Amino acid sequence: MYRILLAEDDKVMREYLTRALERSGYAVSAVDRGTAALPLLETERFDLLLTDIVMPEMDGIELAQRAGDLAPDMRVMFITGFAAVTLKAGKQMPQARVLSKPFHLRDLVLEVDRLFETESIPSSN
Predict the structure, then answer these.
(1) Burial class for 45, CB neighbours closer than 10 Å (0-12, 13-18, 19+)
(2) Strand pairing partners for 76?
(3) What angle do CA 33, 75, 37 make, to 5 degrees?
(4) What SS3 state is found at 79?
(5) 3-7: strand order across its sheet
(6) What CA–CA distance (Å, rounded) separates 20 from 16?
(7) Angstrom distance (rounded) from CA 24 to CA 6
(8) Adjacent-strand bridge partners of 50
(9) Rounded CA separation 108/55 (Å)
(10) In the prediction, which pLDDT does 90 show?
(11) How far apart are alpha carbons 89 and 75 in whole angstroms?
(12) What is the pLDDT of residue 63?
């Protein structure tokens, strides 16, 4: 089972995303800010960092950069409602995916599934 670390400061959005991802078979650890995510990254292994970009204390871009030092193989996906921030994220973390709010939960799950498709083993029929 793939493990996702979700950093989202909006409580309703955090709970909504957590439920959708868990229903799709992912294990999710959710925190309300980037500074709360760092201790988890130091002690646990995650396959994906799914983070809002605009958060108090530490934005998602800085979190992703620090996470890259701690877990270089971990994938990163940003979620944001700000177009200008999307451009900044694309420049600073070109390998990361960016999903702009508002989005449908189905779209989020599809994007997460696509991130992991390269590792799935094709079934033999």
Answers:
(1) exposed
(2) 49
(3) 20
(4) strand
(5) 27-31, 3-7, 48-52, 75-80, 97-100
(6) 6
(7) 15
(8) 6, 77
(9) 19
(10) 54
(11) 14
(12) 95
3-state helix, strand, coil in the chain (%, to 5): 45, 20, 35
Q: Where are the beta strands (DSSP E) in the chain?
A: 3-7, 27-31, 48-52, 75-80, 97-100
Predicted confidence at residue 121, as pLDDT, reads 47
Tell me the C-alpha distance between 27 and 89, whole Å.
25
Residues 47 and 71: their CA atoms lie apart, in Å, by 9
**Residue segments in the chain with a per-residue pLDDT below the cut of 50:** 121-125
Which helix (H) or strand (E) covers residue 67, if one does?
helix 60-70
Residues in the chain: 125
- Using an 8 Å Cβ cutoff, are 28 and 51 in contact? no
At residue 123, the pLDDT reads: 46
- Region for 97 from its dihedrals, namely left if φ exceeds 0, alpha if ψ lies in -120 to 50, beta otherwise: beta
Please tell me the pTM assigned to this model.
Answer: 0.85
- Tens-place pLDDT, residues 75-110: 999 988 766 555 565 566 657 777 887 888 899 999
- Give the Cβ contact number of residue 32 at 10 Å: 18
